[in-house]
Input
Amino acid sequence: MNENTEKELLQVLKEISGTLKEMKEELGEISGAILETGTAIEEEEN
Output
C-alpha cells in the first residue's frame, strides 16, 4: 500500500470515528428523552 493511500484511509477512519461519536451523543439525548417521557407517563397514570 502506498503512503498516500494509507493517509487517505486514516483520514476516512478519523471521519468515521467522529461521526460515530456524534451519533453516540445523539443516542444519549434520545435515550434521555425516552426515559423522561416514560417517567411523565408513569406520573400521569398515578
User: Anything to note?
Assistant: Residues 3-45 form the longest helix (43 residues). Helices lie at 3-45.
